[in-house]
Design a protein that fits this description.
The protein is of the alpha/beta class and 408 residues long. It has helices spanning 8-18, 27-38, 75-85, 99-116, 130-145, 164-169, 196-202, 204-211, 245-249, 262-275, 297-310, 355-372, 377-395; strands at 43-47, 56-60, 64-69, 90-92, 95-97, 122-128, 150-156, 174-180, 219-222, 228-230, 317-318, 321-322, 332-336, 339-344, 347-352, 406-407. The longest helix is centred in the last third of the chain and has 19 residues, at 377-395. The protein is globular. The chain starts with 7 loop residues before the first helix and ends with a strand.
Length: 408
Amino acid sequence: MIFDVRSLAFSLKLLSVSENLYPEGQETAIANAVADAFGPGGNLFLFSRAGLVPPYVIADYGDVVYCWASGVHNARQGLAVLVNGSKQLEAVGEWASNPLYVAAGRVVLESLLSRSGGSGKRWVLTGHSYGGALLSVTSILLKAAYPTDDVQLCTFGSPRPGDAAMCRVMRSLKLRRWMNSADPVPRFPPHFNEAPAASIAAGYFVASTWSAYSQPRGGIVVYPDGVLAAKPLPLLDRPIQDVLLLDWISGIGGIQSAEHTLTTYRRNMERVAARQPASAALTTGSVSGDNGGQMSFADFIRLATGAAAAQGNNASSEGGKVSYIPMGSRVSVAKIGTEYAVLWGNGIIAAGKTLAGARAFKRDFNRALRSMQNLDFVNQVALNTALADYLFAASTPGSGFEPILVVT
């Protein structure tokens, strides 16, 4: 057996146990699934839902310790995830996460250390949805406790777990983030360009908090036809239309989506397994056919202004009314050293050699964002896709903008 969460076959074994955490209370089914996947002889500990901590399982095989955590099991947990995602992120050293993920992640960590403590082990953590986000916290804290141990994390449809600093810390882990191609939950909390109506309705503080969340590396998108691709997020086929995010995340567009269920994950991943030869069992973050997008900023601006012009829209207004972009979602400029950094969302997306160049970049980018609010549905989708491709390429090492894109 390949003990690597980046292996498709190994991830499917982990998934076979996760499925039995729904509905809650299937102790015998869980024990059988663990034994079928990883053999008999492990010490099994099952933890029922306690408050806002979902059910989770620990299986200690001595040199290898497994842990599974499930997603939301009731409306109260779902509402808590939403509410805590709108609060200020909780700092944990140099990184920050959702306060709920931090609290629940620490509960699971305490259980792991008290029942399977001691370094020199391999730790394999697997979480679905909310469980994936809280185990992201657990895995970082576990790696900090045992820095020389092999800590691995496998998630299915996990929401964004924390800020960009958290995602950088997670580079020390072996990580695989599985995402169905139409699963909406990995985009929670949504960024402004993903949910403009909800962001404006929520107000500056909440919208800026949402924009601080990121997904770490290691993402693999799985398609219904058995094709997979290394991508940070599934394609957003349309901006989230709900003004109230609760309507989206609690409905069929969110955690109740069929694409978010583990049944759909198993179906899609088994189709991948059927298509791939055994030699291709290990899927890394460099699956051919995806480089994060090669959209240049000039291409993006041409698409934005061209789409707006095609409708006869002014780039910044419609019917004389200026589209409002919350302050936290606007592009800004700050001098760092001898260069002028162009800032948006979580960090620097470009660096200007001159103040004039950086300001021109900022002006055009903000104009493009305003244009998005005035477009019809078809052009909104095109712009949304272009913006996501550009931002990922501009801010992700190894995706086409090395060194970082410079505006002169």
